[in-house]
Amino acid sequence: MKKTPGFVDFIVVGAGIAGLRAAIALASHGKVLVVTKQEVTESATHYAQGGIAVALSDEDEISLHFQDTIQAGDGIVNAEAAHVLVEEGPERIQELIEWGTKFDRKGTKLTFTREAAHSRDRILHAHGDSTGREIGRALYATACSMKNILFSEPYNFEEQEKLIDKAVKLAEGKPEVGLIVIDSITMHYRLTMRDETRRDERYGLTRQIAKLLRISRQRGIPVVVTSQVYTDIDTGAYMPLGGHMLNHNAKTIVRLERAGTSMRTAILDKHRHREEGARAAFRITANGLED
User: Rounded to two decimals, what is the model's pTM?
Assistant: First the structure.
């Protein structure tokens, strides 16, 4: 893990396509720290096998791409967002190519395929089914070449705990800190579950949660952590990785469930003062979260 700088202008959480692209855009405006839960290559981007739809071939048009997108959505497509997608797509692809992304080609020409509801050959792939990995590689190489972008990558429990210690110390010394967020706190815990030789490392999660709980009580500030879940085979209930330790220490537990395209349902599983089981539905839109 590289030494974390004492001051930065921007912090980007996550090093997938979205995080790296945001960091590259911000680099011209100040120092950027990209924080990841594990090594940069361990993200959804790295495992994305599908291609990218873009109207770039000689037989295609942006208007046709827009029409196919609207029809495929069967009435639930945000037309404004679809316009941005199809109109800016060619420029973004050209940008990726300039940054070193190696899309599949036949000779010197890009290779397009036709899939799903598309009426033209407009799907680009890279190394067959390794499109996400190749785009991530190119973006990471571009980001690393920019002096204003720094990376902080915890590779194990020990380094994750060091980052938590820094967050706690920062909260202790700066009264303006009013919230601590830890994404995927059980990532390294999950990886140790398959390796019996790493059993002792699992206690690191308990220690880290205790540190976060202490600063929360000391400062009176919320600490929000996200965790993966599994289904208990005996009860059928959803349980967070980390088990009873997380359940016991958490004052509030909110479970998120997918309820359709861009739709989510938040379910209150635990709360001191509110009725458990309460639900709230919301949509993920281009403008953020909406009812």
Answer: 0.58
